[in-house]
Amino acid sequence: MRVTTSPIEGQKPGTSGLRKKTKVFMSKGYLENFIQSIFDATGGAEGKTYVLGGDGRYFNAEAAQIILKMAAANGARRMIVGRGALLSTPAASHLIRLNGTDGGIILSASHNPGGPEADFGVKFNGRNGGPAAEMVTDAIFARSGEIDTYFIADEPDVDLSKIGTQQIGSMEISVIDPVEDYAALMESLFDFPKIRALFASGFRMRFDAMCAVTGPYAKDILEARLGAAPGTVVHAEPLPDFGGMHPDPNPTWAHELMDEMSGPNAPDFGAASDGDGDRNMVVGPGIYVSPSDSLAVLAANAQLAPGYKSGLKGVARSMPTSCAVDRVAEAFGIGAHETPTGWKFFGNLLDAGRVTLCGEESFGSGSDHVREKDGLWAVLFWLNILAERNESVEEILTAHWHEFGRNYYSRHDFEALPVEVANKVMDGLRARLAGLPGTGVEGLVVKSADDFAYEDPVDGSTSHGQGLRVVFEDGSRIVIRLSGTGTEGATLRLYLERYTTGPGGLDLEVQAALAPMIRAAEELAGIRGVTGRDGPDVVT
Ligand code: VG1
Ligand code: CO
Question: Which ranges of 109-171 would DSSP assign to H, the alpha helix?
Fold first, then answer.
């Protein structure tokens, strides 16, 4: 069926897909226009195969039905769908690669809350399994501005609750187990017998799936395959509103886990994941591992896991992520790349075989096994390292700092600001950048200051305006950028970093260690003055 439509404003994908209020996505023609724009901007769906699944949030099931009918009407050959329209983002990435499909559509607003009053989102991934590159998302957005028709099959809903093959017209729909192929991939990378022996020896763990998509994956892999005690995985059932939880695995939103991990009878290891399963937070008893440190520890110990035994080709981190992993790369004599925020910038480096591990400060890490960050993968990697080293999380982290020095790091988020206020902060600092090198701030001398631009070393494409950064002579850094994943107002992110070495400098309280950076940021950008806020809403 051919339906006449007209362009809807604002269908511009951000850091990771298009995210809007659920009600916006449910409004007439909104999802349809965007999906048709994806097909149109990528050469049409005729004869193609796609992977489809989502994180189970409100409107996930309905949106999946609409997309299946649209794919059929657009001439797609086959759709591979997770049972119940569920797939974690990394599992979807794996399925795209495993089946050699033309891409995938992931229904998720990731770490944003879900429900009729919260957020919904759509991500489009390409043949390599990774988020569509900027060139593609720009083309999709351009198409959404001129669209006048979409196609949808006039057919009843498909039963997605049973594994097996069905048809809409001539299009085949394969409903598959969302966990199986992903679990097999994990088993090929990590030493499952060794981790099983660790659990058998009494090692205790808590995994908080935050009522989001990782629950079924974590239960199957940690409890069923690796023998972790039943109940290790909590909040394991994906719910449309995530049970009211905000599925963002950081100390603020995963506070139940944090409380347990700092309590008297804390398990040996704690972890949490986000809405769509691509983020992770790892915690030891009484000790939180900052995501930037986690990436560095994984890089330094990679060879302990069978899948990485032969060493790393190189590493990559997003610009605001701390430089901790760079120290490891330097020691190993491998390349270290610095990219803009968002996983789409790692794809080319991974495809070209230049890097094996990548990560972001926002609780994301991953490797060349898929083209997305991968929450459970990082947790299994840690378990493999813990099993091999037979040391606690704290011992591993402390030894790492002694060997490489410590990059104290924190991110301060100022959320839901009026857009013009956030822009004023950015414009104010941007205007000062050129004059900063050589000047002193809070006893620190500015070495360089710029608005980060990136030239992709593989395809030569450039991306500008990726964050304002001020680097000091001692390697300390301040970065400020605006979030590209929110659905309300603007969120300003302030990233702070300071590097120290040697005994005495390694076990300071993080915010205290960063106090000079916090004062320097205020002097340079005047966030509190301009926004009228006393302090950040979330500190990670
Ligand atoms: C945030 C993070 C970024 C991450 C992105 C998508 O983007 O900072 O590092 O890649 O979310 O993650 P922003 O533009 O709001 O800072 V997810 O798990 O929400 O797909
Ligand atoms: Co996510």
Answer: 134-144
